[in-house]
Design brief:
By secondary structure, the protein is an all-alpha fold. 67% of the residues lie in helices and 3% in strands. A three-stranded antiparallel β-sheet has the order 1-3-2. Helix 6 runs antiparallel to helix 7, helix 9 crosses helix 12 and helix 10 crosses helix 12. The longest helix has 39 residues. It is rod-shaped.
């Protein structure tokens, strides 16, 4: 009883505060240690004492924590959160952070669902291909459909030949040239035209860059690129490119006087 009489009117012990707000004594001790919320006074017997103002501050901490703010962020924001505008600005920042997390999680979920479909279509267990597919999905590379069409040797070549940055750069150039060919095709421009042949020259340059000069890879690339029936948007697009590219390449190779594809079945 003596200890209770030693507590001045208007003050509360750590246990009383913990009970009122619904946190543990250990949590309050941790907040004190981290400089987040220290008791306003101490009794003659050395007990930590809190005031109503401390209670309000603790309520703010608990509320902000439930909204997803980190303790470090709360620690630096408590002093400035004195007006509705201050609170609104802080919540806006937290909302933006949550939206970013939602976008990342949504992208990951979409990638996982797409990978599941690819796994079922492949009908074989190949974790190296799974890894390649998920990486390309995360990079938002629509050409990931190609991965399941490549054999292990070609995939090893790609892994050794390109890193993430150079791979994305290559895909970007490939897609831009494909877009130009589709535009020319839709505009009715002849594959023999100078404009088309310039694009074909760049396209063939990409192929030799991809193979690193190893023409033995052309057979595999022909197999991968041969799309008889498109099953998705990327394949439909690539089939359009192929229909225009094939005669254009014949004209290009005729001009060179040699055809690296001759004799390949």
């Amino acid at each position: 009883m003596a200890k209770h009489r030693a507590i001045p009117l208007g003050f509360m012990t750590v246990g009383e505060v913990a009970k009122k707000i619904g946190v543990t004594v250990r949590t309050l001790q941790y907040y004190d240690k981290e400089g987040l919320l220290s008791p306003s006074a101490e009794s003659e017997g050395g007990r930590r004492l809190y005031t109503d103002k401390d209670l309000v501050m603790l309520h703010q901490i608990v509320s902000l924590k439930s909204l997803g703010f980190s303790l470090d962020t709360i620690k630096h924001r408590l002093i400035s959160l004195e007006t509705p505008t201050d609170v609104a600005n802080a919540l806006t920042e937290q909302a933006d952070s949550i939206r970013e997390r939602i976008e990342r999680l949504t992208a990951s979920l979409t990638a996982i669902e797409q990978l599941k479909e690819e796994v079922l279509q492949m009908q074989t267990v190949n974790f190296k291909k799974y890894a390649d597919i998920i990486v390309n999905l995360q990079m938002k590379n629509d050409s990931y459909y190609l991965i399941k069409r490549f054999d292990d040797d070609t995939l090893d070549h790609i892994r050794n030949r390109f890193d993430k940055e150079s791979g994305l750069n290559f895909i970007d150039r490939f897609n831009r040239l494909s877009d130009k060919m589709i535009e020319l095709q839709k505009a009715g421009v002849s594959p023999k035209s100078e404009k088309c042949q310039q694009i074909v020259k760049e396209y063939w340059g990409l192929i030799t860059e991809f193979t690193n000069g190893d023409m033995s890879m052309l057979t595999k690339l022909m197999e991968v690129g041969n799309i008889e029936t498109a099953t998705n948007a990327w394949e439909e697009r690539q089939k359009m490119v192929n229909d225009y590219l094939e005669p254009a390449l014949q004209v290009y190779f005729s001009g060179l006087g040699e055809n690296p594809f001759e004799g390949m079945e």
